[in-house]
Structures are given as structure tokens and as C-alpha cells.
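Quick one: C-alpha cells for this chain, please?
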Amino acid sequence: ETIRSLSAELTFMGENVTFVSERQLAEGKAAKVQWLILPQATHVLASTPAALARFAKHGRQLLLVGTNCLSRDEYDRPLSRPNCPVKVVPDGSLGSIEALQQALASSPFPELRDVSTGKPAWGIEFRVLKQGRTLLVPLDNFNGEARTVCLPHWAKDSAVDLLSGQAVELKAIALQPMVPRLL
């Protein structure tokens, strides 16, 4: 449940989500990511704390979700946490985009806000991607009803929906359920 929840929250925050196995981490073949989030990973290989310390040594960060995260090895023996800075959030303290953004406070996130509430938009998958000197923003509303959202950082700008050819004001982007837009 924790993996599913974190994956959805990160996706709705406009972040790419990838999975890294303990073996990839140990071999130094993990994706080049800034954060590694361990969701309730209570039992890990005995070699994992050292691999996590190597990961963090390169300026990358670790977020452990759950107070018992990394507490036992694969044989259920007690395990020491990695010898590096680690941020720990207790069980059940996330559960919202705001809480996850606060936990990952040192990372800048593109914002997508619900116009009606002013809060981070929920249920809308999006990314802000650089394509040369242009930004592309794919959006898809997975909610059951239409939503109007904005990209506050670019609220004074407009864009073109490359799928429909329509001009779009970024302070009020209308999204129908399950109808993708590419701005």
C-alpha cells in the first residue's frame, strides 16, 4: 500500500517515478535519481545500508518511510542504518501531496494547482519536460469529473495544446476526465 500511495503522490506532483532494486543499488547500476525513497522496507539485504551510504555520498538523498525501515536483514537479524544523512518519516505521516513535498523540502517541484481550491491538484498526472528551449507539459485527468488547474509558475503565460491546436491560458487549464492534453 505504501509503494502504491507514494507512486501516485509523486506522479501527481509531476515527478518521474522509477524503481531501484537492492541489487542495482549494490552494483552501482541504479537510475541516476536525486532521491531514493524506501517505503516500509523493514527487511533488506545486509549489504543495502553500505550501498545506500555510497548513494548518499554523491550528494543524493534518502527518505525512509516508516520508523522500522531498514531495521532487519534478510534473515530477520537487527541491522544498523546507513552511515549517512537519512530523513525518516513515521508510519502514516505522509498521505498527501503537501506532506510529501514537506518531507522532500530540498527539492523544487513543478506546481499544478486546482483553481477552485488553490491546493495541489490531485488525480492529474503531469510532467514539465524540456525539449530544447521549449517546455512540454503533458496532462491527464484521472478524476471522474472535469477539473480546472493552473501552473502558478507560468500563470501569466499561454500555451498551445498540440493535440487540439487550441490556445490555453496557463492560469486556467480545463481538463476533462481521461482526455490527455499536451501543452
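The first strand starts at residue 35 and ends at 39.
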